[in-house]
Write a structure and sequence with these properties.
By secondary structure, this protein is of the alpha+beta class. Helix content is 20%, strand content 20%. Strand 3 and strand 4 form a beta hairpin.
């Protein structure tokens, strides 16, 4: 069973329309755009809108909590250790990254 996490804090359990696997069109409808898949801290996957921040979708706090984004300190250490990485922007003491918009959290085998 998969769960849709909305930016306003609501959650909704969802089964694939065909009863077995979520199809691309179904995933795009849920996240309202092109999909991006991220691994969660607990071994599931998160399907989200690839352009959510560009589209100005609201931050999704419950989805962000499921992803192991690096802390600002970890990001600085990574940049110092890898001179090939180019970082555009500013690293502050705040959050480095976040998830925006509506997402679907499920097991990897539920997506085809």
């Amino acid at each position: 069973m998969a769960t849709i996490l909305y930016s306003d804090g609501r959650q909704e359990e969802r089964q694939p329309a065909n009863g077995q696997h979520f199809q691309l069109a179904e995933l795009q409808q849920i996240v309202e755009g092109h999909i991006e898949i991220l691994p969660t801290k607990d071994g599931r996957i998160m399907v989200c809108n690839e352009e959510s921040k560009l589209e100005g979708l609201p931050r999704n706090a419950q989805a962000t909590a499921l992803i192991a984004f690096p802390t600002p300190r970890e990001m600085l250490e990574l940049l110092r250790a890898n001179s090939d990485i180019i970082f555009v922007g500013e690293i502050t003491d705040g959050e480095v990254d976040y998830v925006a918009g509506t997402v679907l959290v499920c097991q990897d085998e539920e997506v085809r």
